[in-house]
Amino acid sequence: MSGPESFDMVIFGGLGDLASRKLIPALYYLHRDGQIADDSRVIGIGRSAMQGEDFRSHAEQACRRQVREADLDEDTLRAFLQRLDYLAVDARSAEDFRALATLLRRPEGPECRVYFLATAPTLFAQICEHLAAVGLNDACSRVVLEKPLGTDHDSAAAINRRVGAVFSERQIFRIDHYLGKETVQNLMALRFGNALFEPLWHRTNIRDVQITLAEEVGIGGRAEYYEHTGAMRDMVQNHLLQLLCIVAMEPPTATGADAVRDEKLKVLRALKPLRGAEALAHTVRGQYRAGAVAGAAVPGYREEEGVAGDSHTETFVVIQSQIETWRWAGVPFFLRTGKRLATRRAEIVINFHPVPLNLFGPEQGPIPANRLVIRLQPDEGVHLHVLAKQPGPAMRLKPVTLNLDFARTFKVRPLDAYERLLTEVVRGNLTLFMRNDELEAAWRWVDPILAAWADSGEAPKGYTAGSWGPSSAVSLLARAGHAWHEDADSGD
Ligand code: BG6
Questions:
Q1: Host H or E run for residue 388
Q2: Which residue from 42, 121, 208, 391 has the least number of CB within 10 angstroms?
């Protein structure tokens, strides 16, 4: 097998939060694990004038903060930092892009050039046009666009159009880092690598699907971004809808990029539109108030620095969605995400129908239905809840869980999502990235819900930090005859 391809990776927003928290540490790990060819370089781009040396020390701090101590080897870190360089570029300055072209020109060019745009989306088109103007959009170039891509359908389509005018679709990698998570990949393995589940994956057997992305963290120092973004644009439009697609899509004919993305697109297009009163009836949006998370008191959203005292930005969303296909008609897909919730947990819960008849008599009580829990974080794994006989003379059934704990089973450190995604970009594999039509279809479904909320003039419902959201998040399901799985029992 040939070694990894050599690359020059240019990170726009090189001094930003994403670069420090995710990209630089991910590149350190790839370097440490021999996944980066010797002559590959990483060039941080920012607006501030600074020397390569300053950028390297910035990156060193980032690695010391983010990389596990046991994984941080001083010699390896030093060697990694030698790959790094810095250039100040103003996104409006053609001259600065000419300087970038000069820096990137080398006689023995790398096999690929990656431009990672970790900047505000309003700069995406302009940066790509400048790159093209200095010839940096040749066949070996790839551009990575970090979410959020636009703020609604029209702005996303405009970005797609302008970027698409200078880079071809197969050069454009739209990141949704949830697609890089180990368990999301495992969901594909579970569904399409086993004969067991697929025949059950149907409305005849499944009662509802619940996808939860719950966070303990608040908005940190990101008020400026979050105030005009909110949970719908930050988490639902991308991460939650992508997970929904992987759960609900038909088996693709291959694992190639377009085969998978074609199937995901069909799911997005089959989502029943939610508009006006129907959107209000099938959604809940909330905003955290002061409370306690993990034993520590935390302020409410409106008290966070940089947030307006009367802000209507939602930090919590629940949506009851429907996929209008023969496979899924009538099966509600409950989507839930929020900040400052009771615990950090990302999971997909498939609730099966109960058995049609209780053979074990009234003393047994109701028989809980089977449930498949696909846990993305923490403790990545798959848990199947089944019923078994409780030991003893009486015939009593008790729920037990068949657990597949990935960390314990495979005993290897799972790749961080960005390690996997950066590797796939260098390999030129688009399977884990969103195509332009997928992105636009997701916005097309989200826009009318946002419009219904705005037209209603209502403020999001308050919830206490450290809870599971406003009480209406529970009553929404109760009205439909369902319950969140942590309410249906003590969780798993
Ligand atoms: C990001 C959002 O896309 O995902 C953040 O902008 C959120 O608000 C984060 O905290 C969650 O990602 P993860 O991988 O920590 O679950």
A1: strand 381-389
A2: 391
